[in-house]
Amino acid sequence: MTDDATTGPPTTDAVRIALVDDQQLVRAGFRMVIDSQPDLEVALEAGDGEQALRLLADHRVDVVLMDVRMPHLDGLSATARLTARPDAPKIIVLTTFDLDEYVLEAIRSGASGFLLKDAPPEEMLAAIRTVHRGDAVIAPSSTRRLLEHLVTALPTDQAPDQHDALANLTEREREVLMLMARGRSNTEIATDLFVAEATVKTHVGRILAKLGARDRVQAVVTAYETGLVRPGS
């Protein structure tokens, strides 16, 4: 296999990003947009999941943009293996609408969110910053529509356990989860509920623990799959 990885020198403050995609032109376009931002930098590139896992074992990054379809090791398998590591980076899965089932599986495997490959540059940059910050679900205009399509189109094999987990939530926690599912940030939820942002953070932490969710996106998927939040609501 030709090693088409690219690594860059570490900096102190910028969010370090890995680009994992088998199309070099795609990576070049993403790199141009990302490196134009003073707070972001592409630290690593890889052409498939196998190469990414090898390089990420030795290079620290904060966020990975991971394509789904790649040779040698696809993005789903790479995501599952990567998120199983201690101190794993956040992963944003790159997809198109015809890969819906794979996207949901990637999120269940631990990805922090997803982004359409043809999304405008500003949506990609916002997604990277949001996932790195960790206090909001990715919320470009396409995200909620895609999530709703996923959970209505696919069968669910974990619904009983998920319903049991929802039963353990307090009324306030269910309310916070519903707002999370609508893409609201902690600050926005605090404003909606007339409470302090620190209180919202406490609720979110308890929700994730009770649902066994790695992050907010996985909790939102549960909210849709169990019917707590319905498409179009």
Automatic annotation (TrEMBL):
Q: Say yes or no: keyword Transmembrane helix present.
A: no
Could you confirm whether the keyword Cytoplasm appears in this record?
no
Single Gene Ontology MF annotation: DNA binding
Ordered alphabetically, the record's keywords are: DNA-binding, Phosphoprotein, Transcription, Transcription regulation
Modification 4-aspartylphosphate occurs at: D67
Specify the domain of life of the species encoding this protein: Bacteria
Q: Where is the Response regulatory domain?
A: 16-132
Which segments constitute the HTH luxR-type domain? 162-227
* One of the Pfam families matching this protein, by short name: GerE
PROSITE patterns attached to this UniProt entry: HTH_LUXR_1, HTH_LUXR_2, RESPONSE_REGULATORY
Q: Identify the InterPro entries for this entry.
A: CheY-like_superfamily, NreC/VraR/RcsB-like_REC, Sig_transdc_resp-reg_C-effctor, Sig_transdc_resp-reg_receiver, Tscrpt_reg_LuxR_C, WalR-like
State the PANTHER family in the record.
TRANSCRIPTIONAL REGULATORY PROTEIN NARL-RELATED (PTHR43214:SF24), TWO-COMPONENT RESPONSE REGULATOR (PTHR43214)
Q: What is this protein called?
A: DNA-binding response regulator
